Amino acid sequence: MARGSVSRASQSLDKYLQEIGEVPLLTPEEEIELAQRIKQSDQEALEKLTKANLRFVVSVAKQYQNQGLSLGDLINEGNLGLIKAAKRFDETRGFKFISYAVWWIRQSILQALAEQSRVVRLPLNRVGALNKIGKAYSALEQEFEREPSASEIAE
Question: What is the mean pLDDT of residues 70-75?
Fold first, then answer.
């Protein structure tokens, strides 16, 4: 039973990845025009801008795999961040849309991981601190070829 649902989830994810791969990328001029239309509540422009950047969400979501949520869930959360970014994007600042959107995508994914992947919910800043400690532990373990002490990690 579980094997069938995993296979189905994998098939639908594969189909999704294939579909978003067919959406053409936008030029900076198109991004600016769509952002201006979004400010005027143009839903079609919002949809076009988000669809053109869904591939980027997948690449960001892959960086957070194996931390408690499936890739599909991470992509869904990242897509919510992408939509939020599209609604708030200010094209007059001269940045590419995706440079602005990456922060919103990461925040949405990190928020979902903090809320859904642990038995006990931790505030997002605590989750970040734990991740930082984990990375320091791994780096020191590699460097010293032994488990680092608490004082070594604290440094």
Answer: 94
Please indicate, yes or no, whether residues 8 and 57 belong to a single structural domain of this protein: yes
Give Cβ neighbours of residue 117 (< 8 Å, ≥ 6 apart).
Answer: 67, 68, 69
65 and 127 together in one domain: no
Pair 76, 99 in one domain: yes
Q: Which of 123, 13, 2, 17 is nearest to 73 (CA)?
A: 13
Same domain, 143 and 101: no
| The pLDDT of residue 6 | 64
Decide if 82 contacts 105 (C-beta within 8 A): yes
Residue 151 structural domain: 122-155
Q: How many domains does the chain have?
A: 2
With a pLDDT cut of 70, the percent of the chain lying above it is: 95
Nearest to 53 by CA among 28, 24, 94: 24
Model confidence pTM above 0.90: no
Among candidates 47, 51, 45, which has minimal Cα distance to 32?
A: 45
Among 30-44, 70-84, 130-144, name the one with the lowest average pLDDT. Answer: 130-144
